[in-house]
Amino acid sequence: MRMYVLVAGGSMGECPPLIQLCREGLARFCTETYEEPNQKNMHHCMGHLTNYSLNKRSHKFEHCGQSMEEVFGDENTSSKRPLTVCLRQLAEEYSDFDIEAFYSDVQVIVQRSLAVMAPVLLSRTRSEDCLEAGRQSFQIFGFDIMLDQKYKAFLLEVNNSPSLCVDEALPVDAEHDAAKLASKNRERDKLCRCMDMAQVHWHQTSLVDLETKSAMMQGAFKALEQLHQGVEPAVENYIPVPFDHELWPLLARLEAVYSRSGAKSFTSTGLRRIFEPLCGDKLQKHAWRCASNSAAAALAHSNIRGPARPPSTRCFLIMPTWHSNPRQ
Q1: What is the pLDDT at residue 129?
Q2: Residue 268, φ and ψ in degrees, nearest 5
Q3: Which residues contact 4 (CB under 8 A, 6 or more apart)?
Q4: What's the whole-model pTM score?
């Protein structure tokens, strides 16, 4: 489930950012029947991944209708449909599924995720351009959420630049499709061979994307306008996500350490660069122990299955930062 989150304003040491969760989003489904992962079906990506970029290439992909009744009707069974439709379908099929409880769970996920991300995000506001913009700066995040069989929400990933495209590619498989296009446009300039698909296709506006993303952006701009007017944003179809004010001073200090360290991101290397001086030799000993275990495992594997080159790349990745050059 792709859900959209608006983050606006905020500055370290002064006030937390405004966070708003959009109720509308996109529900994306696999085009192959799910099976419990094993060695034989691990390569069946369309049965394990719901990414639209993958499943749209499948002949089993079911495109959404081009009318409002088809898009927002409860009979919608397309491979990509509005989130609100999917939640209604779940509530109708399973009596113990609570839509508002789902949004509450996602609120907690968004709150905790952005708390972790806040030092990195707001460290960018130290630049002069951002300081002049103040609370007028904003960003839209795409949160990918998955439900388990007990309706528990899990965060898969956060996209800092979610797609706002509203078109879709349809393959030209049959002769009647080509004939239909030819009659529609004799020059057949609607046929396309771009990288969206491996075969000849044509593009059309996706009504489900258009309605979902337009509603999301309109609500975001209304919230930003209210914020600019000094009014606490209250937008229909958006849920405010409270930020932990007690946590904010701690995040402000963490952001100060992050900015002064010069680290580019909170990767394992960046964190090690920041905190290694505080850990003494323990962190280095742990890194060497991991490298030794990896090398021992590689040697044991080569003794069983014949000569094999040790995975030097993997060993290098867990080495201390003072061995950052693999040629040394």
Answers
A1: 53
A2: -60, -35
A3: 21, 22, 24, 25, 140, 141, 142, 143, 162, 216, 220
A4: 0.72
